[in-house]
Design a protein that fits this description.
Blueprint: H1 4-7, E1 11-15, H2 27-34, E2 40-44, E3 50-51, E4 54-55, E5 69-72, H3 76-89, E6 93-96, H4 106-121, E7 125-127, E8 133-136, E9 141-144, H5 148-151, E10 159-163, H6 167-178, E11 183-188, H7 197-204, E12 212-217, H8 223-236, E13 240-244, H9 249-252, H10 258-262, H11 265-275, E14 278-281, H12 284-288, H13 291-295, E15 304-309, H14 312-324, E16 328-329, H15 334-343, E17 354-355, H16 359-362, H17 366-375, E18 382-386, H18 396-409, E19 414-417, H19 421-429, E20 434-435, H20 438-461, E21 478-480, H21 483-492, E22 496-497, E23 500-503, H22 506-516, E24 520-524, E25 538-542, H23 545-562, E26 569-573, E27 579-588, E28 592-599, E29 610-614, H24 619-626, H25 632-636, H26 646-662, E30 666-676, E31 681-683, E32 686-691
Parallel strand pairs: 1-2, 1-5, 5-6, 6-7, 10-11, 10-12, 12-13, 13-14, 15-16, 15-17, 15-18, 18-19, 19-20, 22-31
Antiparallel strand pairs: 3-4, 8-9, 8-11, 21-32, 23-26, 24-25, 24-26, 27-28, 27-30, 28-29, 30-31, 30-32
Helix pairs in contact: 3-4, 7-8, 14-20, 15-17, 17-18, 18-19, 20-24, 22-23
């Protein structure tokens, strides 16, 4: 069922309607009347016949029609009863403002589930409970009680703010309105017992007038709809910025495998956002700071920055900030440096960063003369103008006009940093993005540039509309398998494994080494000790029969001292590769198989250098992920050495993802190390964590 009825209803009933505009049941009525809602409003309150000048009704059954949407502004059991009444009356959608449900525990969660079933069985959708409400300023459907719409005058515009939290739907709204930016959608979905904030985002993303979407998430339990929202937004060229708070206790739990520990909830969310071109903001400031840049329609094609200021200190500080944020201070072409040198006085700097100096005080046209020269240089992707000192005696209104004229003709982002409010106001009045400091301005430019790069990469490698794999099936409680069983599963999945045998006695181990006539590795076999190296249960480069006997006895003695089950030793061929990597897959309850790839060995968690990928992923996406690692140069080859077998690693990674997709009882697979050379990748150790219902 479409969610459009929530955003553009023909009729709205308010259950628990109030005559007071300052009460929860009165605010939506007042807002709809004030902000141009053209549909019908039906206050429902058995104690009144008129509310805010409108006829009031004792109950839903007394309405002249079944409303599209009902706002449930009553609490406790009355709210639960109202859901049933709405479902029976044929209401299409209900917004439950009442709190006191799943946010209080398991009992409240069961009540929510019951309300959802009642609604859905009747073809009705629910927003909430614990919702502040929804607001669409294009249609006047302000189905919300937020005080922020009184404190910050609404204006329809190209931004949508969606949130599970009521406060975090309107805080970005308030910050944007203070900067003169219009906001169309302000939606708070609350507990998401039925319609999630992600599903609502997919509907909002299709609004042809929305140019920027901001989302606040406390939990991301509906990645499929958010992936759909991202796909719709990318198709329309609309960026999405998300602020995700918190890490669940489940995500913090100890994991049996390295892969399970590495693939924490927060890192999986990062991988999901990266996969779908969603920029992850770290705080509220970052959620809104680059809004003007996105709304200008600039596409951005690089990180090369030009800096112009009337202060040498600002030039230096801006260059420092650019380096911190991952931008490059561009080198202008020599011809353009000469042209700028002829414009500026001899004591000014014509090299980027360009220091106009205090000459600006006596010649207010310098910005207007220099800007076209900088703008014509092919080495420039973005421009910062820093004006730390201006005001009386400076013709800063002219600077603003000249910058605005230049910006309209430029194909790249242009921003201004000015600490003086009067100067910022002059530039803002001309439509130029302006910030208090160069740090803020450069951070916004960096976010904009890197987000655009992310979106461009995403356009090239998303395999399907969502990229979310079904997580049907349950592994139940998980337990580790011994290395022999783990290697068998890994080999069956298509990975090459080192030659190995399990030996239940010293004599068997000696016989294997004698037959192979090669150095071997001797390791304990036990489901009860998943990380053998931590306990001295691995002997490397064992080269003779006496050494094999000694290794076996040592391992047996240590296992006995630990009181752990001992199933013999695994003797495997001692191999060498150019690099020890880790590759693994972990089943996430919401995102499906998550693959980990990175530097391996015993320090895989202590000195982490790895990246996460959500299945399915393309060859290009895999290569892009490897490029983010510190060891990335090794894949191409360094100091005369050949590169590493990326194609073989890609095949191994996809095989492990397929394994978790096809085998619902496998929780995680850890291959560490996998020895990688120019033409091979050989698994020499594996750990599989399987559900107790598995084999």
């Amino acid at each position: 069922m479409t969610l459009d009825m929530f955003l553009d209803p023909n009729s709205v009933a308010v259950i628990g309607a109030s005559d007071s505009e300052d009460k929860i049941g009165g605010r939506p009525i007042a807002f709809m009347k004030r902000f141009g809602f053209k549909g019908k409003i039906y206050p429902v309150n058995p104690s009144r016949t008129v509310i805010q000048g409108l006829p009031a009704f004792a109950g839903l059954e007394d309405l002249p029609e079944s409303p599209d949407v009902a706002i449930i502004a009553v609490a406790g059991q009355a709210a639960v009863d109202a859901v049933g009444q709405c479902a029976a009356a044929g209401v299409k959608g209900a917004i439950i403002i009442a709190s006191g449900f799943s946010e209080l525990g398991a009992e409240g969660r069961l009540i929510e589930e019951s309300m959802r079933r009642t609604a859905n069985d009747a073809g009705m959708r629910l927003i909430g409970p614990n919702s502040q409400g929804l607001a669409n300023f294009a249609t006047g459907a302000i189905l919300s009680f937020s005080t922020m719409f009184i404190e910050a005058e609404p204006a329809d515009g190209p931004v949508a703010c969606l949130s599970q939290s009521g406060a975090m739907s309107v805080v970005p709204y308030g910050l944007l309105r203070a900067r003169g930016i219009g906001v169309r959608h302000v939606h708070a979905t609350g507990n998401d017992c039925d319609v999630s904030v992600s599903e609502l985002a997919a509907t909002v993303a299709a609004d042809p007038d929305v140019k920027l979407i901001l989302i606040y998430l406390e939990k991301l339990v509906d990645p499929e709809h958010l992936a759909k929202a991202a796909a719709v937004a990318r198709g329309r060229g609309v960026p999405i910025i998300a602020l995700k708070s918190g890490v669940s206790e489940e995500g913090k739990r100890a994991a049996a495998s390295h892969t399970g520990a590495i693939a924490s909830e927060d890192r999986v969310v990062d991988a999901f956002f990266r996969k779908h071109g969603i920029w992850r903001a770290r705080n509220t400031t970052e959620l809104v700071r680059a809004a003007e840049l996105y709304l200008k329609g600039w596409r951005g094609s690089g990180r090369r920055l030009a800096i112009i200021s009337n202060s040498g200190a600002t030039c230096v500080l801006s260059a420092d900030a650019a380096e911190r944020e991952g931008l490059q201070v561009a080198r202008l072409g020599s011809e353009n440096e000469e042209r700028i040198g002829k414009i500026l006085p001899a004591f000014a700097s014509s090299r980027n960063p360009i220091d106009i100096t205090a000459a600006l005080l006596s010649n207010g046209g310098l910005f207007g003369e220099v800007l076209p020269v900088v703008g014509s240089d092919p080495n420039i992707d973005m421009l910062l103008i820093g004006i730390p000192v201006s005001g009386r005696g400076y013709d800063f209104p002219r600077y603003a006009r000249d910058t605005a004229k230049f910006m309209k003709e430029a194909s790249f982002p242009v921003v201004v940093a000015a600490p003086q409010q009067s100067v910022r106001a002059a530039f803002a009045a001309e439509g130029v993005p302006v910030f208090e400091t160069e740090d803020q301005a450069i951070a916004a430019l960096a976010q904009f540039a890197m987000h655009r790069e992310m979106i461009e990469h995403t356009q090239g490698h998303v395999l399907d509309q969502t990229g979310v794999v079904s997580t049907s099936g349950s592994a139940g409680d998980c337990k580790t398998l011994d290395e022999m069983r783990s290697l068998r599963i890994v080999a069956d999945a298509g990975l090459d494994c080192a030659r190995h045998l399990v030996c239940a006695s010293v004599e068997d181990a000696v016989a294997v080494q004698r037959e192979w006539a090669l150095p071997v590795v001797v390791k304990a076999v036990s489901e009860e000790v998943p990380h053998k190296s931590d306990h001295g249960l691995v002997h490397l480069n064992v080269g003779g029969q006496d050494q094999v006997r000694s290794a076996y006895v040592d391992i047996a003695d240590k296992m006995a001292a630990m009181g752990k089950r001992f199933d013999g030793v695994l003797v495997s061929e001692m191999l060498k590769g150019d690099r020890e990597l880790v590759i693994g897959a972990n089943r996430d309850p919401h995102f499906g198989p998550v693959v980990v790839i990175g530097d391996g060995g015993i320090a895989v968690e202590a000195i982490p250098d790895n990246v996460l990928l959500l299945a399915p992923f393309s060859r290009r996406e895999f290569s892009d992920a490897l490029a983010t690692l510190r060891i990335a140069p090794l894949f191409e080859g360094v100091r005369g050495r050949s590169g590493l077998a990326i194609d073989t690693l890609f095949e191994a990674a996809t095989n492990l993802a397929d394994l978790l997709r096809d085998e619902a009882d496998i929780c995680s697979v850890d291959v560490n190390p996998i020895l990688v050379s120019a033409d091979a990748a050989i698994a020499v150790d594996a750990l599989v964590v399987r559900g107790t219902a598995g084999k």
